[in-house]
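thought: fold this chain, then report.
action: predict
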Amino acid sequence: MSNGDNLRSLIFGYDKNGGGPSFSVLDQLLIPHETKYVDIKNCEDAWDAIRSMRIRGAPLIAIVAVLGLAVDLTSNKTTVAELAGIVGVDEVKKYVFQKLDYLKTSRPTAVNLFNAMEELKGIVNNADNSSREAIVNAIMTHAQFMLERDVSDNKAIGTHGADDLLSRHTHPDGVLLVTICNTGSLATAGWGTALGVARELQSRGKLRSIAALETRPYYQGSRLTAYEIMTENMPNPCLICDSMAASYIR
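observation:
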């Protein structure tokens, strides 16, 4: 779900034969040498993908957790069977909330993850209390909404960011950008935040050059952002060490 669909942090869809939803994530530990998607079939898989850092980026962590829960509740036979055996809507909610609390332990410092879990608790509490199906449907609907909202928000960030930069920079060849960490399609559901600004400038023909900091100690910049920049054929790309940022900008 990115510019040109050539950079997809995740793949989510429904079986064409009427089956439930399927979900997989790009194993970012293998980038840039290998492109491999890992199936997420339940909350445990989502937890492991987050904990092991197969996926990174605050927005993506939250989305993977919510989608992992949605797939778990609808496509995982073990979970579906457990739900079927639960009597009472309050007990269904308790069961779901236990899974939410479990997912939060995958990355205790991830603010987006905790916010998403609290938002989802509100969705569950406000859902039609007539049946477990209504609660599960509310979770699935919200998961799909999160996907769409993230891409929409990212593109809005790109538009406003590009507008602001162009209003203050008058170089005829456009803007020279420096970016740090991983803020592109691989950190989100698609398009990206800071790197989304670069994509918007590029689409307008106003991106003169872009430099990515390596981002120590995990090197998200050199492994992920630089990979995105090269894949998207951004102009005059450059990878620099973190300590070069000040001199490079001058």
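thought: worth noting. The chain has a mean pLDDT of 92.
final: tokens above.
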